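Working notes for the structural subgroup meeting. M.R. asked for a predicted model of this chain before we commit to crystallization trials. I am recording the input and output together here so anyone reviewing the notebook later can reproduce the run.

Input as submitted:
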Amino acid sequence: MSESVECIYEDKDIIVVNKPAGLLVHAVSNKRQATSNKGQGVSNKGGEATLVDWLLARYPEIKMVGDPVKLPDGSNGASDPSRPGIVHRLDRDTSGVIIVARTQESFNYLKSLFAGRKMRKVYLAWVFGKLKECKGVITQPIGIVSGSTRRSTRSLKMAKEAVTRYKVEEEITKNGESFSLLKVSPETGRTHQIRVHCVSIGHPIVGDALYTKRKSPAGHERLMLHALSIELPLLSGSMMRFEAEPPGDFADFSREV
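Returned structure, recorded in token form:
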């Protein structure tokens, strides 16, 4: 696992890494494990290694960075030890760029950027089918499906605004079936937002076992979603863009036509 995590950038405030597909960002509770579905980013059976383990081994100072844990009396305790420095996450099978806070000041600052939509994220996704429009904006609110970890644009339960922009980058045919490569920019940060919005327009992401029963091409059974880049103003005031090239299995999808 340690060999597959790549550090893209670091300074006194942040660490930027390229997370490989198949690696959990942090451990999850037994309750969430019980409701997981085919390992789509919510299971941690057997105490497997996580990105947090990799980070703590190299940057032990982040152990005290994060949101405080709520104590039984309602007061705040120390920072959550399961998510040190973590201000956003990627599902287990999503690869790509993650930014981690190295100090509490940086943690609070990064959270404010996410909340204020001042951080631009770009993803790549291979989806089933060919889209009618080469670009568009999906604005359907996303709610929770009762009794599951799934989200849906059809559910009103705790539904929240969600905005996703997309552009078709490539179209291919494999074994008589059409697929499209989308460049996707979520303007909000809802759980499973890109996955749910792709389903809502009839083009689920290849390998998304949680949201589609469509069979993926051989060798591409994992979620074909990659966090390509993040652009943000640093605490110093300079604007930076961090990018991670897609892994081999993602890049190879279009070559095996």
